[in-house]
Design a protein that fits this description.
Layout lengths: L1 E6 L4 H12 L4 E7 L5 H11 L3 E4 L2 H13 L8 E4 H9 L6 E4 L7 H9 L3 E4 L2 H17 L4 E3 L2 H9 L8 E8 L9 H4 L4 H4 L9 H9 L1 H14 L6 E5 L5 E7 L4 E5 L5 H9 L14 H4 L13 H9 L6 H17 L8 H11 L8 H19 L6
Parallel strand pairs: 1-2, 1-5, 2-3, 3-4, 5-6, 6-7, 8-9
Antiparallel strand pairs: 8-10, 10-11
The protein binds magnesium ion.
The site of magnesium ion has 4 residues, from helix 7.
């Protein structure tokens, strides 16, 4: 029986993780859940189904609302401890007996609980790429020290992780990080200037949360994934190639030093990498993941990325391997600026301009500690808010 905790349980990754857990009741037990205040009804349903030991919500008020909802459902409150805040999130991430922490939260919020879970040697099923983008220089050495395994859930990194099975970083000539190109792949720079929120939220292949869908439209998502791959696989940026692949079937591949290429294919469904990470290192049969029919797809195409059109991708690639606070600032600025776009405060094509402005004002700290990173994150959010003029809840 694998014992898991899940932070971000009512988001897209969280719901799909629990879908897999409900299909494998003999193999997966859910010890802890954490979610935001917006979906307490969903969280209450999850608690009734999985009966976790501990559940965390953002505030004291949320604990009261959640207990009311559970009482209405006739749930025995003695079964589950309801906690809150940053301390609550850490409690869920470090509950006794835990095998795997699934980090399904979006954004910088994932850093602290991941850090604390790693200190206990817990395996991390990492869906929160921002943890490595912002704090890779702290997280990776810590994982090594405490012998904690990090299994990526991001589909591209899962593909590379699976392709590397039996090989080491020394065997890699380059990795091919695939991306669909997002909704604006075929739009011109001028057309993108008139892009609306609705246009940017129309992802061609993947069904995901709003923040990551906008990151896919700017291709910042692929940029953050370059940084994530740098930390996960210990590779310099010149060995990480972005490959545009509109069908999202080849999830990424590794080119080895002998010229051989090994990649992983599958339908674009996040349950596939989640399932893999939950059961790693075993391959467990899945009835939930749809099967790939290549004859039906018939054609797979590939293109080079356009770094002039997708400036966010270029910015991220340029700073990918800096062991400093700069990637943390990139991530924080992006979170605030994307939220401002979602609130209709700025236009889509100005997103990279705002990010560059925050980066230019930053005085980076080399080889940062976790405290340096927390401070850089706070600073960058404040700077970004002063530029786009909208306060952002975190
Ligand atoms: Mg991805």
């Amino acid at each position: 029986m694998k014992k898991i905790s899940l932070i971000g349980s009512t988001g897209s990754i969280g719901k799909q993780t629990l879908d897999i857990a409900s299909a494998h009741p003999e193999e997966i037990s859910v010890l802890g859940l954490a979610a935001g205040a917006r979906s307490l009804d969903d969280l209450a349903e999850q608690i009734v189904e999985f009966k976790p030991l501990v559940v965390s919500v953002p505030t004291e008020d949320d604990t009261v609302s959640l207990k009311d909802r559970l009482a209405q459902r006739g749930y025995n409150l003695a079964k589950t401890r309801i906690v809150c805040g940053d301390a609550g999130l850490v409690e869920v991430a470090t509950v006794d007996g835990l095998d795997t922490l699934v980090t399904g939260v979006v954004g910088f919020l994932g850093v602290r609980p991941t850090y604390e879970a790693i200190k206990k040697g817990t395996t991390i099923a990492l869906a929160n790429k921002e943890t490595l983008v912002a704090a890779g220089s702290v997280i990776m050495p810590l994982a090594k020290k405490h012998n904690a395994r990090i299994v990526p859930v991001d589909s591209e990194h899962s593909a590379i992780f699976q392709s590397l099975s039996g090989f080491t970083t020394r065997d890699i000539e380059s990795i091919w990080l695939t991306g669909s190109g997002g909704p604006f792949r075929t739009w011109s720079i001028d057309e993108i200037k008139n892009a609306t929120r609705g246009d940017a939220l129309k992802h061609p292949n993947w069904s995901m949360g709003q923040k990551i869908t906008i990151d896919s439209a700017t291709m910042m998502n692929k940029g953050l994934e370059i940084i994530e791959a740098h930390w996960l696989f210990d590779l310099p940026a010149e060995k990480i190639e972005v490959l545009i692949h509109p069908q999202s079937i080849l999830h990424s591949a590794v080119q080895f030093v002998d010229g051989s290429v090994i990649g992983q294919l599958g339908v674009p469904d996040m349950r596939l990498p989640i399932h893999y990470a939950l059961f790693h290192p075993e391959r467990v049969p899945s009835g939930r993941v749809p099967r790939l029919d290549l004859t039906e797809i018939a054609k797979l195409t590939f293109e080079k990325p356009d770094y002039e059109k997708f400036r966010c991708l270029k910015i991220a690639k340029e700073i990918a391997c800096e062991s400093s606070t700069v990637a943390c600032v990139l991530n924080a600025a992006n979170e605030v600026i994307v939220e401002a776009f979602l609130n209709d405060a700025i236009k889509f094509h100005t997103i990279p301009d705002h990010i560059i402005r925050v980066l230019e004002r930053h005085k980076a700290t080399s080889n940062p500690t976790l405290d340096d990173i927390l401070e850089a994150d706070r600073w960058a959010r404040q700077e970004a808010v002063s530029l786009v003029g909208t306060p952002v809840s975190q």
